[in-house]
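Input chain follows. Return structure tokens only.
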Amino acid sequence: MRPSLRSRAHFMRGFTLVELLVVIAIIGVLIALLLPAVQQAREAARRSQCKNNLKQIGLALHMYHDTLGSLPPGWIANHPSTNKPYWLGLPGWGWGTRILPFMEQSSVQDNLIDYRLPMLDSFHDTVRTTSIPSFICPSDTGGTTFTLEPGSMPAPNYSVTFTDTTVPKANYIGVFGTVRMVNAGCPTGECLGNGSFVLQKGFRFRDLTDGLSTTFIVGERNSKFSPSTWLGVFAGAAHAPGRIVSVAENPPNSEVSPGFTFSSYHPAGTQFLSGDGSVRLISETIPQATYHALCTRAGGEVAGEY
């Protein structure tokens, strides 16, 4: 017997409005539960890539050391009048440029850089906008370049003309130490921090007497307050040396002088490269004494738990 029209209408009844709202609410709850997990997975992948970048830098530094007998100088700069080392002098090339051949970037160094010329020389127009992916943390989103603005030059007998200049971004900078540059002899020429990357001097691994595994040599800095570059120190630019090295005066992500310390966009902490090539994630709650012990090359301190 064929079903009646009334029976067919009963079988074909659709969802009610309440049922649809319940389904939508359930889907919304599932998405809300899933989204943080997806974001955490993405951040974990970005942090892993960031760690790999630091490991690559560490490997390059070790190969540089094996080839030339020391780590590269933090930066090389001389006073144009006296030709003596001067933290805001010329040409200003930083440690990051020196390891390019060991990061499969020989063409950049060979074709785009002349270390005898200042970084603002027209010969370097191309390299001043050349981004090196291995120097950028994937968690630090945004452009691969930034505008470096003029700053003050604390030397009455030496001044340069510096205007807004586009430079490549970098998120990995050298550890100058735990003492501010103005207190480490930089204005007078010595500029010898107690870390691993300082003006004009390249340390040997044996100079890191605190131990390679307990000495941080490179760390992260995000671009929120003071973007960094891998090129070097631009004479006349704002916070020029602080663009390639940092002072670990305060713990990572500190709200005190945030533009001059180490920092990251990783929610769990900031990653550091040790002298032995290992990479560690350091929380912003690390004890100050322990952090300082890790950021000096020969302080004789004993690094505690971290």
